[in-house]
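Notebook, bench 3.
Goal today: get a predicted structure for Phosphoesterase from Lactiplantibacillus pentosus so we can plan the truncation constructs. The sequence was checked against the plasmid map this morning, with no discrepancies at the termini. Length recorded as 172 residues. Pasting the sequence as submitted so the record is complete.
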Amino acid sequence: MKCLVVSDSHGDRDIVVRLLETYRDQVDAIFHCGDSELSDDDPLLKDMYIVQGNMDFDTHMPIEVQTTVDDVTVYMTHGHVFGVNMGLDHLLANATAAHARLAFFGHTHQLGVERREGVLVLNPGSITFPRGEFARIGGTYAIVTTSSTAIDVQYYNRRMQAVPELKFHFEN
């Protein structure tokens, strides 16, 4: 399974359009981890899984999504409800309860990826307002590729260029 993960676009509809136009036919799914600030009725939403962030005021967006794409279970939330600024334990507990192999979240605007208790936990960073160690790159998103033996993660910048130092490989 190959998917694109983006978060915290904060009203930058143009970058979401560019990502969809570029990747729609190259990935199995597109996940937006919240704070899109798009309206519930925006036609872009039909092309992706999306959750409500703390800056999304249309309450029809779900707080969390659990789905399976090509036999890979994914759990996604924005993270604000689960206190991701203080740690990932609550998020990980929900992902584990959902039997997820992948857990995606946003909110912190800081990219990060780690494997915990058999679950790949990933924050793509903010595509619009990045923070933290890699803010110098500008906005980021991630492409996650799974196989029966491994998970590969490659982060990209807003210019849709791979960031060489942000490539990760996790064996199953």
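The first strand starts at residue 2 and ends at 6. Residues 2-171 form a domain with the Purple Acid Phosphatase; chain A, domain 2 fold (CATH 3.60.21.10).
Flagging this for group meeting.
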